[in-house]
Amino acid sequence: MLFLSQLLGSPVLDSNRERIGSVRDVVVTMDDERLPVVTGLVVRQGRRESLVSAGQIAEISEHGPHLTTTREMLQPFARSGEEVLLSRHMLDHQLIDVDGKRIIRVNDLQLTGTTAGWKVTAVDVSPQPLARRLGLRRPARADQPRDLLDWADIEYFASEVPAGHRKVSHERVARLHPADIAHLVDAVPYRQGAEIVASLPIETAAEAMEEMTPERQADLVAGMDAQRAAEIIEQMAPDDAADLLADLDNEKARDLLDRMEEEASGDVEELLAYAEDTAGGLMTPEFVSVTPDMSVSEAIDHTRRLSFEPEIIYYVYVVDSLDYDTPLLLGIASLRDMILGGLDRRMEEVMTTSFHAATPDTPAEEVARVVSEYNLLALPVVDEGQILGIVTVDDVMETLLPGPWRERIPRLFR
C-alpha cells in the first residue's frame, strides 16, 4: 500500500536498474461497480512523456516503480477517452462522499497492490497531504493518522474528466433523501450539479429540485433539455413548480408549460396568476378533501386512493362535492380527531365548522401570523366559501425567513 503523493515525482528504474525518468501521473480505468484499476504510469523523460503499461511494471514501492523493460520500449503517452489521470483529474478535485452525504476535496489517494493489479482503495481528505505538497510541513511520519474514506463510498464527476469519458450513473446518490441530493447539488459548481440532476430518474429529480435554492433551480432548468425540464417540473408540487417558473423569463416559462400535461400545467398557471407574497401565490391546490356523508373509514380509504401525494395529510377538508375543482368548504377534521372519534362516525360529526382561512389576496405576513398564533400546520385558502388550496407552514416560513434559514426548515408534513 502507498499513496499517490509518494509515487508522484519518484524515480522510474528500467530493467537494468537505470533511472529513465520520474512518475508524472498514474493512469486508471473507472467503473461504477469496481475499484479504479491502475493501467499504467505516465513517465516524464525530459520534455517527453511516455506511457508505461501495467504489464511493464515489475513492482511499485514508496521509492518508485521498477520496470521489466528498457527506455527504448516505451511509447509516447497519448490519453484515450476512457482513461483517467489521478493527479490531473482527481487530485485537488471534488468527489461525492455518498456515505457522508457531502462533497469532499481529494488531498491524496491510497493505492493498494492486489493479485489483480494496483487499485485505488481510499481517498485521503486529511489536511496533511495538501500542506506537504504546498511545502508547509515536514514529511509525515509513517504512523501519522490519515482521514481515509473507502472508495466504495465515493462517486466521481464525469464532468471533471475531459471529453470522451463515459457518463457516471450516480445510482448511489439517487438513493439518498431528496434533501441530501439537493444539498450536494447546491454545494458544487453548476456543471457538476447539472451532471447529478441529469443522472436522476424524473421523480427523484423533481423531489430534489423542490429542496434546492431558487437560484440553482432556475440555472439547472435553463441549461437542461426542455422536454426533460418540463417532465421534472410536471412531477413537482404545483406551488414549487409555479415558484420555479416565475423565476424564468416569460418565453422559457411558456415553452415549458406548453410541454407539460394539460392538467399539471393548468394547476401551475392558476398559481402563477397570484402575487408571490400572497396566500394565492403560496398555496398548493393539492389537498385531501372528502364529503360529509363519508364515514371516517371511507374517508381514510379515499385518501389512500388519491392520484397525487398530498403535501400535508394531517388535515382533511370536508367539502360539499368531489365533482368540482373549487367546492364549498364545509369543515375541517384532523386525522387525530378522525381516528380517536371512531371509524364508523360520519365526517360531518367529526369535522369542525369553526376554522381560520385566508383569501387568495391575503398577504404572506398575515398568513404567517395566523399560522403561528393558532399553531396550524396548514391554512385553507377560500374565495366566497370555495376552497382553492392550502398554505402549509413550511411554505410560509420559506417565504418569510432569511435565505440561510430556509434550508433548515424540514418538510415534515408530506
What can be said about this structure in brief?
This protein is α+β, with helices and mostly antiparallel strands and 414 residues long.
Give the topology:
Blueprint: E1 2-3, H1 4-7, E2 11-13, E3 19-29, E4 37-45, E5 48-53, E6 57-61, E7 64-67, E8 75-76, E9 83-85, H2 86-90, E10 94-97, E11 102-105, E12 108-114, E13 117-124, H3 127-133, E14 148-150, E15 154-155, H4 171-174, H5 178-187, H6 190-199, H7 202-211, H8 214-223, H9 226-235, H10 238-246, H11 250-259, H12 262-272, H13 279-282, E16 289-290, H14 296-304, E17 315-319, E18 329-334, H15 335-341, H16 347-350, H17 364-373, E19 378-383, E20 386-392, H18 393-400, H19 403-406
Parallel strand pairs: 16-17
Antiparallel strand pairs: 1-12, 2-3, 3-4, 3-9, 4-5, 5-8, 6-7, 10-11, 10-15, 12-13, 13-14, 17-18, 19-20
Task: Describe what you observe in this structure.
The structure is a single chain. By secondary structure, this protein is of the alpha+beta class. It has three domains: 2-155, Roll (SH3 type barrels), CATH 2.30.30.240; 169-273, MgtE N-terminal fold, CATH 1.25.60.10; 289-406, Roll (CBS-domain). The chain is 35% helix and 24% strand. It has 19 helices and 20 strands. The protein has helices at 4-7, 86-90, 127-133, 171-174, 178-187, 190-199, 202-211, 214-223, 226-235, 238-246, 250-259, 262-272, 279-282, 296-304, 335-341, 347-350, 364-373, 393-400, 403-406; strands spanning 2-3, 11-13, 19-29, 37-45, 48-53, 57-61, 64-67, 75-76, 83-85, 94-97, 102-105, 108-114, 117-124, 148-150, 154-155, 289-290, 315-319, 329-334, 378-383, 386-392. Strands 2, 3, 4, 5, 8 and 9 form a six-stranded antiparallel beta sheet that branches. It is elongated and about 95 Å long.
